Every structure is written in C-alpha cells, then in structure tokens.
C-alpha cells in the first residue's frame, strides 16, 4: 500500500447503532479501512445522503456481502492511499466515488473503477452529490430504458435526487420530459431544471396529463420509484413499445395490474438496483459518465441540485430532513 501524509489508525464514522429512527445514527470511532488490491482509500470531505441510506438505517436494506456496515453510498475527497494494482490515481487526486457503503466516515475504501475525478470547478459538497444519482440514472434511463433524442420520458418523483438528475440529463440529450411531484413548489423547481411538463400528482391524474401532453401517444420511457398502483397506471401512461424502468417500490412491491397492456402495447417492464452490481459493471458506467456527462458537469449544463448540507455528526438531522420529504434535490454531509 502506498500512502502520502500520515493516515491515522482511527477515524470518526456514523454507525447505525440499531435499526430505527434518525437518532440511531451515532458517531463512533472505527479503524481506518485499508485498501486492498484494485482499491483506493479516500480522505472524505463530503458524503451524499440517499433514500437507500434511510432504508438501511431502518433495517430494510442490508449492505451486500463484503461491504462496510456503515451507511453512505457516495463520497468526494482526496486519494489518501493506494492499494496494489492502481495505475490511474495518485495520492492527493481530488475525486468523487460510488461506495458500496461506508461513506459516512472520515475515510472510505473504494474500488478504483468506481472513482471519477472531481468535475471541473466543483466543490467537494457538490461532487459528493453526483455519483449515486448519475450512475443510477445513466444506467436505468439511457442503457436499460434506451431513451433517445425526441422521445418522451416520464420521471416520477421529479424533485428527488434521482428525479432532478433524470430531468436534467434527459433534457440535455433532447428528450421531452414530463415529471410528477407532490407540491406546486416542487413542480416549479422541476420546470426550472428543464422539465417540459410537471404534474402535481396530488391534484391531477398523471395518466390523463401524460396523454394530454403527448397528444394521446404516451411516454416512451418511464422511470418509476413508486410502484404500488403506479404499476398499472404506468402501463396506461406508456406509449406503444414503451419501456418502464422500476428503481424502487415506495408505495408497495406487490400490485395487481392488467398485463394485456404489456402485450397490446408491446411494453418492456424492467428494473435494477445499483449497489450489489459488480465492480466491472460500475467501472463501465463510470467510463460512460466520464465521457458523456463530465463535460456537461464541467460547463454546468447539468449540476446537482443542492438542498441542505449538515456536518457529519449531524447525519441524523439529514435523515430527518429526508424523511420529512420537503427537500428538493440533494442532502449532503460535510465531513471536513
Ligand atoms: N434502484 C437503484 O439502483 C436506486 C438507486 C438510488 C436510489 N433509488 C431509489 O430512488 C428513489 C429516489 O431516491 P432519492 O435518494 O433521490 O430519494 P428522495 O430524494 O428522498 O426522493 C424520494 C421521492 O419519492 C417520491 N415519493 C415517495 N413516495 C411517493 C408516492 N407514494 N407517490 C409519489 N411519489 C412518491 C417523493 O416525491 P414527493 O416528495 O413529490 O411526494 C420524493 O421525490 C428512492 O426510492 C431510492 O430508494 C434506487
């Protein structure tokens, strides 16, 4: 292992003391992890907060085998040490990375294939808000959903970290973007980000609104994080040959749906979860993002929407804010 400045043996991290509410997130002193072959150690300056962290805290989303038990799926910071077999990165490089867990800490061990340079001109808090959402949206909307220029994307949860990313990327690539959100303020924020149409789902039926906006054709790709009764309604809102990509089932994993729509419209209903995928898979997404999206981040054609920043030791407040549901965009922890 190669390292630059002296790395301490112990660090502050935020652990899940037991499954439960935000207050179970507690500072602990832990050993600084050592990078293995193909891995780097990052001195973390900022860590992104994501809905899956909330699920993990509640005991509903256990870390995959081999991953840290600490929450945190994305970080930004400096390369502090290199494991064997690392050629691209040098000590001191400013980077951001997708982590399989362990982001809520002063140091995080990550596979080199999940690491990207800090986008030009970005602060660490901004860069920490990028990996989880950009990896997820790139794979699900463009690779799995196959969204093309001129097609219509329907994004549910438009004001979420994922939603704000999907709106910006799809509109940057020339799609017509329709989104749903739960308040007028959230709809206005989505329109400012480039959505062509924002539907307040508490006041309007999104199926009717999508049909109206597309002159009856429906959406070519639907990114859904809701599930439950949205399954059937997505089938109704989809265009012929539509692709529906499921990335979460917040309103329920079990639903009753009329599958004749799948046949009649020749729909594809697919989905994925990012965290358990292989390091090779994540490295391939990282390469695609660096080639296609990093230039857009560098000119701020797209950028994470920053909601609130909390100190690491106030991670519980960050979770409280996320669960209150008033946030627009990303919540980030400042690790120092
Ligand atoms: N599959 C994957 O690989 C992957 C990766 C990352 C994240 N995710 C999932 O993607 C989702 C967004 O993550 P995030 O970190 O961006 O979370 P977030 O900012 O907390 O967003 C959650 C969103 O879900 C919407 N929502 C929740 N329940 C709803 C319902 N019953 N009807 C309509 N909308 C509902 C909320 O919309 P309103 O506030 O407008 O009601 C909110 O915008 C989460 O479910 C997360 O688990 C999946």
Description:
The strands form three sheets. Strands 1, 4, 5, 6, 7, 8, 15 and 16 form an eight-stranded mixed beta sheet that branches. With 336 residues, the chain is of the alpha/beta class. Strand 15, helix 11 (315-324) and strand 16 (330-334) form a beta-alpha-beta unit. 29% of the residues lie in helices and 28% in strands. The structure holds NADP nicotinamide-adenine-dinucleotide phosphate.
Low-pLDDT regions: none
Q: What bound compounds does this protein have?
A: NADP nicotinamide-adenine-dinucleotide phosphate
Tell me the number of helical segments per DSSP (H or I, 4 or more residues long).
11
Q: Terminal Cα separation, in Å? A: 24 Å
- SS strand fraction: 25-35%
Domain Enoyl reductase (ER): 20-333
Pfam families: ADH_N, ADH_zinc_N
Organism: Mesorhizobium salmacidum
Keywords: NADP, Oxidoreductase
Quick synopsis:
The protein is built from eleven helices and 16 strands.
Core attributes:
single chain; 336 residues; alpha/beta; eight-stranded mixed beta sheet; six-stranded parallel beta sheet; 11 helices; 29% helix; binds NADP nicotinamide-adenine-dinucleotide phosphate
């Amino acid at each position: 292992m190669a390292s630059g400045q002296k790395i301490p043996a112990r660090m502050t991290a935020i652990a899940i003391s037991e499954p439960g509410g935000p207050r179970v997130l507690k500072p602990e002193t832990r050993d600084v992890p050592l990078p293995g072959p193909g891995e780097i150690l990052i001195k973390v300056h900022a860590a992104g907060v994501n809905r899956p962290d909330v699920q993990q805290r509640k005991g509903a989303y256990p870390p995959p085998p081999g991953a840290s038990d600490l929450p945190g799926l994305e970080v930004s910071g400096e390369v502090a040490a290199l494991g064997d077999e690392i050629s691209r990165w040098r000590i001191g490089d400013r980077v951001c990375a997708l982590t399989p867990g362990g982001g809520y800490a002063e140091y995080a061990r990550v596979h080199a294939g999940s690491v990207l340079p800090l986008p030009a001109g970005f602060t660490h808090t901004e860069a920490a808000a990028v990996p989880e959402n950009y990896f997820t949206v790139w794979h699900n909307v463009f690779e799995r959903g196959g969204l093309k220029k001129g097609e219509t994307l329907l994004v549910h949860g438009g004001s979420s970290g994922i939603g704000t990313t999907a709106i910006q990327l799809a509109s940057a690539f020339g799609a017509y973007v329709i989104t749903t959100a739960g308040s007028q303020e959230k709809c206005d924020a989505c329109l400012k980000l480039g959505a062509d149409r924002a539907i307040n789902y508490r006041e309007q039926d999104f199926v009717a609104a999508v049909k109206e906006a597309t002159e009856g054709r429906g959406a070519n790709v639907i990114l859904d994080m809701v599930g439950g009764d949205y399954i059937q309604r997505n089938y109704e809102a989809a265009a012929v040959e539509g692709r529906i990509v499921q990335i979460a089932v917040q309103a329920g994993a079990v639903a009753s749906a009329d599958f004749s729509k799948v046949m009649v419209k020749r729909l594809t209903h697919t989905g994925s979860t990012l965290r358990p995928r292989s390091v090779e898979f994540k490295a391939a997404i990282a390469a695609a993002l660096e080639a296609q999206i990093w230039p857009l981040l560098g000119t701020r054609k797209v950028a994470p929407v920053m909601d609130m920043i909390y100190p690491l030791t106030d991670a519980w407040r960050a979770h409280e804010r996320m669960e209150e549901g008033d946030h627009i965009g990303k919540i980030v922890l400042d690790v120092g």
